[in-house]
Amino acid sequence: MIDLASPLTNKNKFLVFGGGFSGGYFAKSIRKLGCIALTSSRSSHGEPNNFIFNSEDNSIPKDSIFEGVTHILSCIPPDKHGNDPVLKSLGSIIKKLSLKWVGYLSTTGVYGNTYGDWVSEKDQPNPFQERSQRRLNCEQEWINSNLPIQIFRLPGIYGPGRSTLEAINSKKIKVIHKENQVFSRIHVADIANAIIYLIQNKNHIDFHQIINIADDEPCSQIQVIKYGYQLLGLKMPKQILFEDAKKDLSPIAQSFWIENRRVSNKLLCEKLGYKLIYKNYKLGLDNCFLNIK
Ligand SMILES: NC(=O)c1ccc[n+]([C@@H]2O[C@H](COP(=O)([O-])OP(=O)(O)OC[C@H]3O[C@@H](n4cnc5c(N)ncnc54)[C@H](OP(=O)(O)O)[C@@H]3O)[C@@H](O)[C@H]2O)c1
């Protein structure tokens, strides 16, 4: 349901810090509603809607970029010290703007390992990895900023151009099996759509500062890979047991297999009424397959 009292129009100007996979998708979606959306990147794309921001070398956007901004979405990960790059470099500028809404893309890694149990926003974060502790610090910085902030905790993000299908085609995939291991995931279109739904309806649904955006069906990696091979009409190679595959995985790849949790979307999908476009990996991969053909 759209809130007619606060429709998004061309009077709304969004700055998307970190116009990568999710940020770029969000910007395209919000432009379709008539809004202005500028995205940042660390080097020039030569595109009119793009501006340069790099917290590492202090490349700061010029003043005109901030003129008339009503909404901000940050999709930039923490820096190596656990500081938020946007708040660190631009906090003093952003805090002076008349902002209606600010969003921050975080990760469900902040919940740590639940050994396969469900986690919801009511659970205390319990970061297990250093990068998740850095992420939790950034969430806290945004909360302390006193901006009208909403934080979205995301599991593995996939979508057209970045999915199991590309991994199979580029032969980068490893068919690894680990007993009872599940992953949660989310299609990039549902990240954009859920955020737009929350902004459009913010006057008549409860405001929650922290919201998980995940699909309905956490499942094993093998199920997703199997379906990917099926869609591509290819034969899946033999599975390797995690214990045998581990030694050939990078430390970062190994770290993803250490944690095991199911991320609940009940707050978003039941309490707040958002309807997922892609409820599970099969529907999501069917969509990604359209991009491959
Ligand atoms: N990928 C996942 O599965 C996943 C899961 C959960 C949460 N997340 C988090 O959700 C957010 C969005 O994820 P994504 O996969 O869509 O991200 P992405 O495609 O990797 O994009 C990240 C963006 O941040 C920018 N960036 C990185 N460091 C920066 C810095 N120091 N200064 C300025 N800009 C910087 C990048 O600039 P360039 O365009 O110049 O590269 C890029 O536009 C990220 O915070 C990510 O960590 C990701």
Provide a quick synopsis of the model:
The protein has helices at 21-31, 63-66, 85-94, 130-144, 164-169, 188-200, 221-232, 242-245, 251-258, 266-271, 281-292; strands at residues 13-17, 36-41, 50-52, 71-74, 101-107, 118-119, 149-154, 156-158, 176-177, 185-187, 210-212, 240-241, 262-263.
Overview of this structure, please?
By secondary structure, the protein is an alpha/beta fold. It has helices at residues 21-31, 63-66, 85-94, 130-144, 164-169, 188-200, 221-232, 242-245, 251-258, 266-271, 281-292; strands at residues 13-17, 36-41, 50-52, 71-74, 101-107, 118-119, 149-154, 156-158, 176-177, 185-187, 210-212, 240-241, 262-263. Helix 1 packs across helix 6 and helix 7 packs parallel to helix 11 (281-292). The model is unreliable at 1-5 (pLDDT under 50). NADP nicotinamide-adenine-dinucleotide phosphate (NAP) is lined by residues 18-23, 41-43, 53-56, 75-77, 79, 85, 105, 107, 154, 156-157.
Indicate the topology.
Elements: E1 13-17, H1 21-31, E2 36-41, E3 50-52, H2 63-66, E4 71-74, H3 85-94, E5 101-107, E6 118-119, H4 130-144, E7 149-154, E8 156-158, H5 164-169, E9 176-177, E10 185-187, H6 188-200, E11 210-212, H7 221-232, E12 240-241, H8 242-245, H9 251-258, E13 262-263, H10 266-271, H11 281-292
Parallel strand pairs: 1-2, 1-4, 2-3, 4-5, 5-7, 6-13, 7-11, 8-10, 9-12
Helix pairs in contact: 1-6, 7-11
